[in-house]
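Researcher: For the record, we're logging two predictions in this thread. I'll number them. Prediction 1 follows.
Model: Prediction 1, sequence and structure:
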Amino acid sequence: MTTAIPFDVYPLALGGNTFGWTSDEATSFDVLDAYAAAGGNFVDTSDSYSAFAPGNSGGESETIIGSWLASRNNRGNVVIGTKVSQHPDFRGLAASNIAAAAEASLRRLRTDYIDLYYAHFDDESTPLEETAGAFDALVRAGKVRAIAVSNYRAERIREWFAIARREGFAMPVAVQPHYNLVHRVDYERQVAPVVADENLAVVPYFGLGAGFLTGKYRTQADLEAGAIRGHMAKSYFNDAGLAVVDALDKIASARGVEMATVALAWLRGRPNVVAPIASARTLEQLPSLLASATFDLDGSERADLDAVSAR
């Protein structure tokens, strides 16, 4: 598939949200090493990971990734995607804030360029022209290779493109939406038409529904025992969601793979999706994620998942 994204990426993006949160530095290095050894080259993070964790202030994930890049001397082999607007010290998308946040991310990542820089959440209090101009300035300065948006409404993405074309600014090449087998409607009805019109690369997050699509949460007791991830998976826990889990289980059992592999392979096969994002808190969780990069559903399996998830 040819999209607007200007570099080749492995068809599974490794989520960096666990680094410095539920994965310490040593474990994070192990996961990153194994991902790279398998051919992986696309790491997703944010300047705000993991300010939400007690004792953290934001930037912990970038710091660990930067230390790993430096210790492995492999910066040129890795595509780094990071984001701006949610770090406690750099909230919003005013031009001065974007410039300062980018510099802070570059220091933590121990690099002089970011491959893919996302506007993490829209900031409607700042004129979109200002935001688009600030991202363009980073591209022109060579500090960012390409720009992208995450969690943006369709009309705001179209507005960004209109401004960029009018002003000669760099245009977004990718979007990062919440999209998976049990959360399809918002993306497919609203954002997917813009993606098709602009040939954007799609890098979905929550590809496994915070663990729900691994089969980990089949009862209320499972959710309650799941601590943070269980709380995040609650929105999927209903009869329709459990029907999707059953369908995944059937395919996974028949093919001798994990449910996570099947769920991510379905997502990888959707239009314009270049790499679903999935996180591995431990090394043991990584193989089933990596397997999705080369696992292909047959026509009937894909049709079954399309039908049950459409409910």
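Researcher: Logged. Prediction 2.
Model: Prediction 2, sequence and structure:
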Amino acid sequence: MEGKISKSFLITLFFSFGLFFSSLAQKVYVFELKEEIGPSAWKTVKQAFDSAQNNKSDYILMELNTYGGALNFADSIRTKLLDSNIKSIVYINNNAASAGALISLASDYIYVHPGSSIGAASVVNAEGEVLPEKYQSYMRGLMRTTAEARKRDPQLAEAFVDPNISIPSIKKDGQLVTLTSGEAVKFGLAKAEVANREAIYKDLNLVNVQETIYRKGAIDHIISFLINPAVSGILILLIIGGIYAEMQAPGLGFAIAVAIIAALLFFAPLYIQGLAANWEIAIFVVGLILIILEVFVIPGFGIVGILGIIFVICGLTFSLVANDFLDFKLAYPGMLFNSFLLVMGAMILSVILMVIFGKSLLKTPVFRRLVLQDEQKSEEGYTSSILKSNLLNKEGVARTVLRPSGKIEIEGVWYDAVALDGFIEEGEEVYVDKHENYNLFVRRKSEKG
């Protein structure tokens, strides 16, 4: 009996010690931020903090290596760090420049890897040119208030932005502050210089650390790929190219399908990342509807079509830039103009490519397999597209509505034709004004001089 009691007592004691040491375990949620600070970085931070909260983590450790990025997203990350009830650690390995310096200042603890640096936080445009005083003033204020919130030296933080702040022990007047890893520790910005995460835990006296490491999934990598400016430009080119092709040859179906798929691939990741808002997508859709109405319903091409094009351009441009209903003050300086240039460049390029290669593309075997075509038999009045000059000034009848392309009949033979007047109803009498390549160009007979 005594043996049994002793055995039960030991088992209970063993589990009690296990529970005790388990209660002493420190949960640390670890993630990397090694990219330009933008929508993808902000999404990563949000997901990491949400997971750390659900995991009931005691600390969240961000391993940081960035040269900076968009101020609005850096400010969002800064706010997330300041407002979190989880202790935050930023481990700089290797760079925390510009927006990265702001993010670092918002953490509870800063650790630096040997050879790392932090600082140089002047606000610049995409070309690296320092922007006017109003931008620098805003950034200086953010740096000061963030440093004060974490009881760090606000003057040192402001010197990252303002070269005129005098700190003789660190820099000459007229120079921005950029601290080495050793200097960051020496001047009290960083807690210690460490070679790895284990050294951080030792310095913080964390025992029995349980790490949970955040890793990006396949969807995150796909989204990051799709929001790359180069990929966005290609998608815009496909959107505009598809719309233009459908306007030139209504009823193709394939062209507008390409435009719609490209639009979904363009807007979906931007919406998920918090860049594209509902109203921006709505502007694009309204523009698309106006263009469709102009092409298929309203004769000619006038104010409705022009408004549609403007709406499409605005929807695409605004979706690429973070804003609060046209308030762009926190957007990366020059981003709106750069986005506009990207959209316009893709639009112009798509039209040029369609003009140069459009007709050749329509005749390729691959395209013919993708596009459903009615069989046009010679006994039904159809003929080949090889046109002769003796059709010039010939009169005929529109057998379909020309918006602006369609079918006409001349002397019992049907031809492909394009209306130079923009819109001709079925049954109207026409005459051939000119022909180029595989198309006749016609006008209303009533306008024949």
